[in-house]
Every structure is written in C-alpha cells, then in structure tokens.
Q: What sequence folds into this?
C-alpha cells in the first residue's frame, strides 16, 4: 500500500516549508536519509577517494565503489565499469558528444535528434557538427507528441551515425519507446544516446533490456544532491573514447616525452576529485527509491496526474498540451495569458510551477506557443496539493491579483 | 495625474499590455540605437530601439515577446519619455528603481509608472518591471559616452 503521507515524513522540507512544490522536473526535495548521508561524509569520515592508505580513505573508496554498483543495478547495466560519475546530465551528454562524437564523426555524417530535445541534448551536437562537418537532422514529433520507431526510421539515412533522443520529454512527459527505437537505430548501423533526466527518476529503466548505447541522468532530479550525475556507456564504446579531462586519478604513468598510460574505464573519465558527498547522497537516494519501488512511484504519479487532467479538462480557459502523458508532467496554458504570468499567479497561491520554454527551444514548433506552464509531480505529491493547484488554476484568469 | 488605487493600477497595466505603445520594429530601424533585452530567469526577448538627438529622446520602440509586466512597463516608459531631456529620463529611471527596491522615492515624477509599486510583492518579477528601463538607461549612457 503506497502511503504518501508516511513518505512525506521522510522529507524534512515539508516541516519547514508549506510550498505546494510542483517543479519536480527541475529538481526534487531530499529525504532525511540523503541529508544524513551527505553530512556523515562531511562530519564523520571525510577523506579523498582513490588515493588513501588510511581507514577513512578506505571507507570512502568503499562507498564510492558501492554506489557505482548500486547505480549499475538500478539501471541494470552489465558491468559496474559502465557507470561514470559526472556532474549531471549536461556533463554526461557533453562527454558523449565530445569524446565519442568528435572522435568518430566525419564530414557529412548525420546526427539525428528531435525537436523535443533539451538544450543539453542539442547544443553539444551543434558543436560536434561545427567541428567535424557532420550535419544535424532535427526530427519533428508525431501528432501525438511522440518520437516513434517509424519516425526515427524515416529520418535515418546511411549517413546517420548517432541518434540522440529524450526518453521522457521534460515538456510533454510522454514516454518514448526507446527499446524499439534502439532496434531501428542499430539495424541501420548507428548508435543511440538516451537523455534519461526525466525517465530514470520516475520509471524503472533497464539499459540492457532497451539495448541502448549511452544513457545520461542527474542525481538531483531523483532525491540526491546537485552536482552528481551518471554517464552510462556500453563498455566497448567507453573503451574507444578518449578522456574528457586530463589530470589526477585517471592516469597510471606519464613521462617528459609526452607519453602517458591511462586507467581503464570508468576511472579514465573521472579526472580530479569526485563530488564525494553527493555520491554518498546518491547512494542513499537510490536505496530510498528502491525501497519504495520505481513501479509504485510511476503508478502514484500517473494516478494523481489522471485526476488533475480530468479536472483541468473541465476548465474552459485551460489549454492542455499533453493530456495522455504517462508520467507526472502536466503542461498547459491559460487562454490569452503569458505563461510566466500564470506561474507568478500560482506562486501568489503558494504553488510552485515553472513557465517558459523549459530549455527545449524547438518544441514550440509542436506546441505552437512560445511558452507553457509545467506542473511536475513526484513520489511525495498528494491529492490535496493537486487540489490546491487546481483551485489556483481555476481562478488564474485574474492573474494580476498576484500584485494586489 | 489620477490617484492610483489598485483597480486603476490593474487596469493601466492591462491596457498597456493589450495595446502597448510602439511595440513594433520602426520602419527606419537603422537610424535607432538598438539592444536586445533578455533575462536569464525567463523567456522575455525584445529588441529595444531608441532615437536620441541633441540630448533629447526623440522616440523609442520595442519588439519581441514577454510577460505582462515586462511589456506594460516598457510601454509606459517609452510613451512617457518621448521628447524628454535624457538627464530627466535617467532621473525618472533612478526613482523608479528606488520604488522597486522599496526605498523612498519621488512619486510625482514617476507618473503612470507607479502602477508597478506592487511588483515588489513578487520579487522574482522585479527584473520584468525593469527590463526595458535598464535598457533605455544603458542606451542613453552609451549615447552620452559616444558624444564625448
């Protein structure tokens, strides 16, 4: 039995802050176990990782290794070596673009992305294209706002080398069938990169079952601290890539002639000191999510969303853009009102949502609006919070009340 | 100037949002000083056009998209400063900024712009209320520098 009120007791922020927080696609609240894990590192066993001979350094190394294995199990990768710690989804996607894209793409090769991609899955490829002479193909969405295997197939050519797509759009919240898309991509001889920023925190994700080549996601969107993210890459692909940064912790030896020998993956991609306290936090976050169960979280969000959408549909002044999405993202506008004005009005009613383009600057081609309002739910969102949100939306034509 | 109660403030903001003053690209855009107005915190995106001659604002325009507060505040400013000495414009802008910092300010010279006195209630939107105002001040400073 999913008890959201019991879950909320694990999050101290709810004691300190009465905001109806519906911006979980941006970042999430942290449970006490995550906060404790971070402070334990800072107050009980601080040491650097990967180079100590003393007890505390050993404990830190052990926890970093355990976290890597926990992430491996969480997304079901084949080897722990396929898990690279990064600063977040953006860093992971940039690493793939630079270390794989720039190395292996040539002039006139094609990179296929969609118009639903976040800036972090668009601009890194723009740079790869500029540097290599490869070309980016921007794929539109289906009428239903999806990226389908058929659509991908139609936009691939013999020149397509990389297909980089969002698993769950941060604006539309639809779940793209990445497993079937991966098959199409592989059949055509290309590799598939998946932006999992909005999927990994909300749904069970299995990289082996989907047979994807790369996956990027962030810790802070799944209860962990900011500044930690994951790059998953198939081992044989990571092994072909050059490092992203050079420095300590990634080399075995080097000489004055400029020769060097590097560690194996994943350490080759982890130059410098890791964000160790965030890794402690990520460990606690994944254990917490596992305890509740990703299936249960997905069900909870979807159930609440269905309730909200049914009510929103009864309001004549509301335009809904993603009625049938299966995640917790609700994207809408109020007729005749600029999205940011709605968000400000909801703020005056203590409801936190986000407005604008949500960093996906081409999705307006699908939506037909410059900006939208996005409410995004998570495992701790309650029906009462949705009711507060709905009540505020109901009166949001009087949006200037926020100032009076 | 009428006394602005909250109903009139609200109506004034809406009137300037729905029918903004000079919200278009001027036909002789090449004769204007120009700058883009944008913000890291929202999707406001305008081009501001300002024509200054003999230390007077001849006219100003803006074009693009943004929220109610950014459009209405820029509209009110551009309407108010047409034909005005640039130093007086800077003085008005300075008083306006004081108002938005909740500091004592000179109500009388702000005219219609006092309708944004309540914008401080939504601190995240102060940038919207000043985006056009900061732009006009920057272009006037640029004009002064270039004249020297």
A:
């Amino acid at each position: 039995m999913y008890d959201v009120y019991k879950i909320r007791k694990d999050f101290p922020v709810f004691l300190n802050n009465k905001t109806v927080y519906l911006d979980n696609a941006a970042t999430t609240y942290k449970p006490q176990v995550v906060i404790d894990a971070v402070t334990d590192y800072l107050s009980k066993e601080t040491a650097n990782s990967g180079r100590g001979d003393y007890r505390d350094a050993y404990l830190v190394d052990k926890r970093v290794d355990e976290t890597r294995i926990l992430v491996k199990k969480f997304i079901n990768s084949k080897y722990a070596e396929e898990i690279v710690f990064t600063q977040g989804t953006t860093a992971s996607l940039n690493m793939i673009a630079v270390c794989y894209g720039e190395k292996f793409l040539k002039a006139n090769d094609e990179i296929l992305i969609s118009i639903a991609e976040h800036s972090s899955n668009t601009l890194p490829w723009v740079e790869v294209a500029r540097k290599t002479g490869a070309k980016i193909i921007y794929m539109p969405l289906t009428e239903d706002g999806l990226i389908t295997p058929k659509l991908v197939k139609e936009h691939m050519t013999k020149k397509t080398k990389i297909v980089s797509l969002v698993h769950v759009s941060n604006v539309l919240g639809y779940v793209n069938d990445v497993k079937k898309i991966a098959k199409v991509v592989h059949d055509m001889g290309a590799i598939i990169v998946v932006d999992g920023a909005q999927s990994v925190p909300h749904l069970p994700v299995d990289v082996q079952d989907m047979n994807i080549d790369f996956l990027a996601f962030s810790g802070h969107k799944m209860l962990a601290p900011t500044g930690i993210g994951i790059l998953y890459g198939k081992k044989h692909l990571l092994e072909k890539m050059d490092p992203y940064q050079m420095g300590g912790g990634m080399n075995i030896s080097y000489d004055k002639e400029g020769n060097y020998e590097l560690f194996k993956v994943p350490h080759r991609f982890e130059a410098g000191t890791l964000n160790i306290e965030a890794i402690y936090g990520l460990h606690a976050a994944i254990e917490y999510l596992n305890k509740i169960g990703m299936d249960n979280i997905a069900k909870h969000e979807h159930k609440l969303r269905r309730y909200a959408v049914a009510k929103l549909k009864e309001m004549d002044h509301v335009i809904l853009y993603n009625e049938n999405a299966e995640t917790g993202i609700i994207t809408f506008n109020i007729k005749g009102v600029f999205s940011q004005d709605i968000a400000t009005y909801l703020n005056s009613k203590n409801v936190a949502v986000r407005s604008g383009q949500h960093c996906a600057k081409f999705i307006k081609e699908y939506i037909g609006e410059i900006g939208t309002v996005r409410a995004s739910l998570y495992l701790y969102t309650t029906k009462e919070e949705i009711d507060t949100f709905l009540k505020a939306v109901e009166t949001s034509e009087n949006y200037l009340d926020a100032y009076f | 100037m009428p006394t602005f109660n909250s109903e009139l403030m609200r109506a004034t903001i809406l009137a300037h949002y729905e029918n903004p003053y000079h919200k278009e690209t001027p036909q002789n855009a090449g004769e204007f000083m120009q700058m883009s107005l944008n913000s890291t915190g929202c999707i406001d995106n305008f081009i501001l056009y300002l024509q200054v001659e003999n230390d007077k604002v001849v006219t100003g325009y803006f074009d693009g998209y943004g929220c109610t507060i950014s459009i209405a505040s820029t509209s009110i400013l551009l309407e108010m400063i047409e034909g005005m000495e640039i130093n007086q414009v800077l003085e008005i802008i300075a008083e306006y900024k004081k108002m938005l910092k909740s500091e004592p300010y000179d109500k009388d010279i702000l005219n219609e712009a006092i309708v944004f006195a309540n914008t401080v209630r939504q601190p995240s939107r102060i940038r919207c209320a000043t985006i056009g105002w900061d732009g006009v001040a920057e272009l006037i400073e640029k004009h002064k520098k270039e004249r020297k």
Remarks:
- Chain A touches chain B through 18 residues (CB under 8 Å).
